[in-house]
């Protein structure tokens, strides 16, 4: 009975040492992450092998593992940039990015864990300054928001090329102009809209007047043609034809031939 405690203590110490050794010799990579292995007694960062994937890994206790999130992430940036005429523009944008999985070791070796501040933010700010500087405040306010979003994306992507980072999208959420400039642009746009509406009303009124003139001219031309074709002889013939038709009617009437105007028959009925 006296030997049992003496045997138990070394066992307990051994278990504790084993737990410490296992904890120092293993690493668990969460989903959406990758591990970069650093060999203390080797060549440092291991770049010629794939990164450690998700799950449990056993490593030498003297080595280290640096874990990187390789899922798509979002960076929000609020910047102050200058337009083509030197006015200060506030730009609110977001970038969707992620480390390239196969190059995460090189990213760690060359850029470090703070690659966001070292690489991505400077690239976005540089591209935004370059793109916005090509446009006037009026263009930025009205028609060019989609254009600058696409151009900032393309220029940022060029800068990040070979930086071991993948840029997925640039979203421009808001472009804020100085209040006085914004008010002036809105007044100008309102005046232009009113001018376009006035011109439209003038064009509509002119077309309506042309329509009325054409209809009136058509009626006048028709009357002139009709008047030119109605001779006294034709009118007399028409009157005779009408008289003969009336004579066929069973209604009581008196027809006086040659007693009407221009010698036309005069028809007297019961009334």
TrEMBL record:
Compartments (UniProt record): Membrane
Domain Band, first and last residues per copy: 25-189
Glycosyltransferase in keyword set: no
Superkingdom as given in the UniProt entry: Bacteria
Keyword entries, A-Z: Membrane, Transmembrane, Transmembrane helix
Record SUPFAM superfamilies: Band 7/SPFH domain (SSF117892)
InterPro entries: Band_7, Band_7/SPFH_dom_sf, Prohibitin
GO CC annotations on file: membrane
Membrane topology, from the record: Single-pass membrane protein
Residues that span the membrane, as ranges: 7-23
Protein name per its UniProtKB record: Peptidase
């Amino acid at each position: 009975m006296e030997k049992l405690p003496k045997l138990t203590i070394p066992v307990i110490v051994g278990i504790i040492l084993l737990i410490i050794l296992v904890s120092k010799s293993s690493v668990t990579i969460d989903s959406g992450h990758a591990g970069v292995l650093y060999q203390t007694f080797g060549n440092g960062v291991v770049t010629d092998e794939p990164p450690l994937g998700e799950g449990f890994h056993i490593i030498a206790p003297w080595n280290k593992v640096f874990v990187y999130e390789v899922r798509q992430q979002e960076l929000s940036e609020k910047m102050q940039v200058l337009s083509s005429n030197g006015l200060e523009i506030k730009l609110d944008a977001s970038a969707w990015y992620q480390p390239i999985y196969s190059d995460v070791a090189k990213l760690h070796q060359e850029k470090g864990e703070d690659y966001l501040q070292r690489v991505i933010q400077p690239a976005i700010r540089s591209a935004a300054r370059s793109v916005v500087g090509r446009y006037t405040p009026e263009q930025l306010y009205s028609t060019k928001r989609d254009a600058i979003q696409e151009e900032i994306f393309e220029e940022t992507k060029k800068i990040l090329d070979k930086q071991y980072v993948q840029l997925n999208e640039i979203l421009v959420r808001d472009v804020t102009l100085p209040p006085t400039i914004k008010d002036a642009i809105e007044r100008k746009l309102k005046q232009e809209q009113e001018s376009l509406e006035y011109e439209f009303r003038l064009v509509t009124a002119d077309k309506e007047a042309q329509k009325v003139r054409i209809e009136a001219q058509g009626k006048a031309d028709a009357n002139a043609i009709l008047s030119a074709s109605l001779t006294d002889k034709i009118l007399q013939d028409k009157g005779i034809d009408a008289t003969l038709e009336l004579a066929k009617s069973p209604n009581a009437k008196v027809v006086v031939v040659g007693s009407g105007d221009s010698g036309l028959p005069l028809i007297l009925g019961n009334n």
